[in-house]
Amino acid sequence: MTTSAKRLDSAARRAQLLDVADRVFTAHGVHAPLDLIVEMAGVGRATLYRQFPDRHMLLLALMERSAQWLATRARRLAHRDDAFFRLLDYMASRIVRSPALSDYWRTTRMSDPRFSDVYQEVLNAFAPPVARAQRAGLLHADVRADDIPLLASMLAAGLRGETDAERRQLVGRALCIVQRGLTPSAPGGCLPGTVNDLS
């Protein structure tokens, strides 16, 4: 096997382990036994620990991947005046899909140097959409990109739901309230196409 093929195989294995870890943590919480990930992924312990030496490194990798997905979406939406609200929508959907990881992320401190790069990537993704929405008159002028962790915490209040359906309903409601508060002259209802479909 060539070096490039080995790299591809390693990257694919890493992605598979992250997918499995996300499912395990969603079902059992972030303190679930790592052996569950090993078993569900069909790999040996050595394979998991080669990629992720400990639980912290695994959770950090999940956070980094989530931030990268957000940044990719931000680039795809860069031409839209409402990109900021669509990114908030996306953040709400991630909270619903990965409640354990979202709760873990919510409880980390921005001052913790282990997470500073991840937080900065999220803020960088939101900064241009914030400025564009403000120029278009869609967003209050005093909103800043570094308000995003606070907004994420507000949306994460929906994690109190006991079932997936309850979480979807609560996160959708929180999203509606947050959007109305951020939008100048917002109508009485929620912005169209943002709350009902968090798939």
Automatic annotation (TrEMBL):
HTH tetR-type domain ranges (all copies): 11-70
InterPro entries reported in the protein's UniProt record: Homeodomain-like_sf, HTH-type_TetR-like_transc_reg, HTH_TetR, Tet_transcr_reg_TetR-rel_C_sf, TetR_SbtR-like_C
A Pfam family this chain is assigned to: TetR_N
Keywords annotated in UniProt: DNA-binding
Residue ranges flagged as DNA-binding region: 33-52
GO MF annotations in UniProt: DNA-binding transcription factor activity; transcription cis-regulatory region binding
Keyword Cytoplasm in annotation: no
PANTHER family documented for this protein: HTH-TYPE TRANSCRIPTIONAL REGULATOR RUTR, HTH-TYPE TRANSCRIPTIONAL REGULATOR UIDR
Protein name: TetR/AcrR family transcriptional regulator
Organism of origin: Diaphorobacter ruginosibacter
Source organism phylogeny: Bacteria, Pseudomonadati, Pseudomonadota, Betaproteobacteria, Burkholderiales
